[in-house]
Design brief:
single chain, 255 residues, alpha/beta, Rossmann fold, seven-stranded parallel sheet, 7 strands, 43% helix, globular, binds NADP nicotinamide-adenine-dinucleotide phosphate
Length: 255
């Protein structure tokens, strides 16, 4: 199948490593012009080299509205339109109701929910200039079932889904697609860091998690990136307002 991504311009946020990086790499391999962002210039520079193609990077912290406004302004100066927007950010800090501070709540509100609002709002004028615009929100399996010790993810990510589902009705008539993906456990530095905080007993945290996944293993970032590239591409032209789990069967609910 041809994903028809040749020369499409796609912004992938939080993409110097992990899920964003893997998605940007698949998109670039499929011929898209990819723009990545993150907070650290050195990591972005090396990601640009390994992603290859005509990748560009912009240093931007997506938890800050001013950074998002200037990120999109930079894109506007190099491209007349935006064909795809992959909304991704760093993960909220772990913790339980008794350990999370007001400051953690406030920061995660900006990092997880408002970043999605600001990125969408600022990008819409450029998306409207594309003939196949698409927005994809990367969330988490936590929107379907809570994850232990991730109160902030469990609380804030469902709001992104509520926004996406509502927005899908609003922008669907303009033929702008909006969808969301919900990763389970995809083996990245973030997952390694979370597991480092949860070591106990004889079984390693990784083995413990993998024993709960029907496919028996964590996902590889490229397996995640391929699904995202499809959903962002014109090949997925009738997929709109959808929520797709990428979790090896971890979520056990029927709906
Ligand atoms: N991996 C999984 O299995 C999984 C499952 C469910 C949900 N998620 C969520 O998916 C997201 C990505 O996860 P990951 O595993 O790819 O994490 P990761 O390996 O830690 O990578 C995070 C990426 O985001 C960038 N970043 C972090 N904060 C940022 C900010 N404020 N503004 C711009 N860029 C930022 C980082 O670069 P800099 O630090 O240089 O900015 C890095 O490139 C997280 O929100 C995570 O909670 C992941």
């Amino acid at each position: 199948m041809d994903l028809q991504l040749d020369n499409k311009t796609i912004l992938v946020t939080a993409a110097s490593r992990g899920l964003g990086y893997a998605t940007a790499k698949v998109l670039a391999d499929e011929g898209a012009n990819v723009i990545i962002c993150g907070r650290t210039e050195d990591s972005l520079k090396s990601a640009k080299t390994t992603i290859g193609g005509s990748t560009e990077y912009v240093v931007a912290d997506v938890s800050r509205k001013d950074h998002i406004v200037s990120l999109i302004a930079k894109i506007q100066s190099i491209s007349p339109a935006l064909d795809g927007l992959f909304v991704n950010a760093g993960g909220p800090p772990p913790g339980t109701f008794s350990t999370i501070s007001d400051e953690d709540w406030r920061h995660t509100f900006n990092l997880t929910l408002m970043s999605a609002v600001w990125l969408t709002r600022e990008s819409l004028p450029l998306l409207r200039k594309s003939d196949s615009p698409s927005v994809l929100y990367s969330t988490s399996i936590s929107v379907k079932q809570p994850i232990d010790n991730l109160l902030l993810s469990n609380s804030m990510r469902p709001a992104v889904i509520g926004m996406m589902r509502t927005l899908a009705d609003e922008i669907g008539p303009e033929c702008i697609r909006a969808n969301a993906v919900c990763p389970g456990y995809i083996y990245t530095e973030r997952v390694e860091e979370l597991m480092a905080h949860s070591s106990d007993g004889e079984v390693s945290p990784k083995e413990k998690i993998e024993s709960t996944i029907p496919l028996g293993r964590m996902g590889n970032p490229v397996e995640f990136g391929r699904v995202c590239a499809f959903l962002l591409s014109p090949a997925a032209s009738y997929v709109h307002g959808a929520l797709l789990l990428i979790d090896g069967g971890l979520y056990k609910g029927m709906m």
